[in-house]
Amino acid sequence: MAGKWYHVWPWLLRILGFGCLAFAWEVAHAFSIFDPTLLPGLSAVAKAFVKLLGSWNTVSDVGMTVVRTLAGFGLAAIAGIPLGIGMGVFRPVYLAAMPPVDFFRSIPVTTLYPVFVLLLGVGDKSKIGMIFTACVFVVMLNSAYGVLQARPTRRQMARLYGCSAPNVLRWVTFYEALPQTLIGLRISLSLSLIVAVLTEMFMGSEYGLGQLLTDAYTTFAIDRLYAIVILTGTIGFIFNRLFVRLETWLVPWSSK
């Protein structure tokens, strides 16, 4: 019996967390802490959410946002991981590259919006480019830190037994840096969805959750606006949980 509760208890706590948020929302609405017109009750938002899910157009909007998110994130991973590992392996490269990388990482990507519009237009290229820019430096830095924080004993042992430098990089350094690299990827995955929605709001698009949010805001469809926010959060939550599963599978030795 105790073993059963051991597995059920974490799920109950997770549900309790969402329950507390829902309770706080209803209290704020019931006591008019905010204007009830601007903060509707959960029942009204739930109806709008169900109606939103029942619309075929929502599938297209969600699909386009997910495609842009994964495209920018994937390109950032493809470019950022090898560049970051290269920075970590070669100390002079790290010292030379760190200042510009840290500089560009510190620039809010939204301030680069006019630059991307001028260079790439207002289509998907600029949206994906902004997502890529927001994520690639995070991936690079975490990959580099993973290499720098790795214990040198394993690399030394591999060389002692005659392992070539490329094989040491592939089979030792890469796996030593993998937990920190995955942290950077996990942060970037959440960031990519945020930037995808923002670019859709700034640049406009035929389909996308950002465009849905803009339409709901400009038409003062408050119930629908909160429903879209909840849908966006749900997608981000699913992304995060799937990545945690992947992380546990890839680096079981570092999971707790």
Task: List the keywords.
256 residues, mainly alpha, MetI-like fold, 2 domains
Order of helices and strands: HHHHHHHHHH
Could you say which overall geometry the principal axes of the C-alpha atoms support?
globular
Q: Average pLDDT, to the nearest integer?
A: 88
Query: Beta-sheet strand percentage?
Result: under 5%
Structural class: mainly alpha
Radius of gyration: 22 Å
- State the fourth-level CATH superfamily of the largest domain: MetI-like
Number of helices: 10
Distance between the termini: 24 Å
At CATH level 3, the topology of the largest domain is MetI-like fold
Q: Which parts are unreliable, with pLDDT below 50 for 5 consecutive residues or more?
A: none
Largest sheet: none
Quaternary state of the chains: single chain
Number of beta-strand segments: 0
